[in-house]
Amino acid sequence: MKIIRRRLRLLPVFTALLCCGIPVTRAASGPGLFARSNLVAWCIVPFDAQKRGPEARAVMLEKMHITRLAYDYRAEHIPTFDAEMNALKKHHIELTAWWFPGVLNDEAKGILDVLKRHKLRTQLWITGGGEFTKTAEEQRVRVEAEVTRLKPIAQEAAKIGCTVALYNHGGWFGEPQNQIEIIERLKKDRVLNVGIVYNLHHGHDHVERFGALLRQMKPYLLAFNLNGMTRSGDKVGKKILPLGQGDLDAGLLRALRDSGWSGPVGILNHTDEDADARLRDNLDGLEWLIPQLDGHAGGPKPTPRSWRDPAAPVKP
Q: Mapped to the 3 state alphabet, what secondary structure does 247-289 carry?
C-alpha cells in the first residue's frame, strides 16, 4: 500500500511535466542500458593526470556513483594489484574487466592468481593486431595462430570462472568478423568462454557499417565502450571525445539501445586529462543524449571540463 500511495503522489508531477511539453525520459541515473549502475569506468589507471592510487581511485568512483571498473595497468601498477582489489571491495566497486596480456606469460599467471585469491570473476580483455590477409589460406593460418595464442588463456580463465573478451584495437584483429571467426574456431575445441568487447574509439572505420556489424557481434558481445564519435575523428585529432561532442553520438547510442543488447557499457578517459573530469564530461554528455534517442530535445549542449574542440577559436 505504501508503494501505491507513493506512486499516486508522483502522478501529478508526471502529468504536469507532460502537459508542459517536457518529455519524461529515462535518465542515465535510472534503469536501462545507460543507467549509472551499468556504466564501467575504463582507461583511468595509467590515464589520469592526477595519478591516483587504488584508494583515491575507488573513492572517486564511489562519489560519482559509478560502481564498475575495467582495470588497465602498466608495470608500475603490478605491486599494487592487491591494494587495488581491496580498495574496490571496500568501496563496493565491481571489477568488471581486466586488461590482460596477449600471451599466457608470468605476468598473466600473476593476474590470474590475484583474481583467484580475491575470488573475483571478471572479463579479461585481450587485443591483437596484424596486417590484413589477402587470401583464404592466409586467413585460415591467421585464425589458427590466434586460436593457439588465446586458447591457453581462455582455458586458465575458465578454471576460475572468468571470460575472455577480444578487444578491437585496429588492424586485422580489430575487425569484428575476424574476431567472430576466432571465437567460432575456439568453440570447435570446446572453448566456450570467449566473446567480444567493442570500442567505439577504435571503430571510426566502422561507422558507415555499424548497424550490420552490431547485428553480427551481438551474440558474442560481452561489453561495449562508448566514445564521442565524428566521421574520421581518428584522422583529424578527434579520436577520443567526451560523449555528446560528436555528431554521430545520438545515432550510435540509439542503434545500440534498439538492438536489445544489455551488457555493461564503458565510459573512458584514455587521455592525459584528470580522470574525474573526463568521466564527469561523459556522464554529462550521456544525460544530454538520452532524451535525443527518443526524438526529444536534450537542452543546452554541455560544455566539457576536460576537452576543447581543436577547431574552435581561442578566446583572447
A: CCHHHHHHHHHHCCCCCCEEEECCCCCCHHHHHHHHHHHHHHH
